[in-house]
Amino acid sequence: MYGNMTIRQMDPSRSRSRGFTLVELLLVLVILALIGGLVLPGIIGKAEGAKAKAAASQVNRLSMAVESFYLDTGTTPENLDQLVEEPGSVGGWNGPYVKASSLKDPWGRDYEYRYPGDHGDFDIISLGADGQPGGEGKNADVNSWE
Hints:
The structure is a single chain. The chain has 146 residues and is mainly alpha-helical. Helix content is 38%, strand content 6%. It has helices spanning 7-10, 22-73; strands at residues 112-114, 123-126, 142-143. It has a three-stranded antiparallel sheet, with helices on one face. The longest helix is centred in the N-terminal third of the chain and has 52 residues, at 22-73. It starts with 6 loop residues before the first helix and ends with a strand.
């Protein structure tokens, strides 16, 4: 009955190419832009909060490493580099106590180390996101005495 007819010849609606219209594509782009505008600010804010928590954890870890250095050598390190590389003038060094990468805060700056410290035997400080003393929120200092 149909003989040599192809499916396209039997159903003319199938011969039209299928695809998205310009309106459909624009609608999808608008929806994606709205979702991005609502979600991205929240994600960025959480990333800065995570950096502050990471800095607090690293300061705690560095403090424990300084204390381990003291227990092994009987002296407090003069700088944080002595936690990674053995100082020539100290006996009993049993390090490295930390990796060299942990001497930088999550914002890529060196931790400040003071020996003797103003708040204890030693002080370790990260100046937060802004790199300036003081601040609030993501710019707040992270230190070893609080």
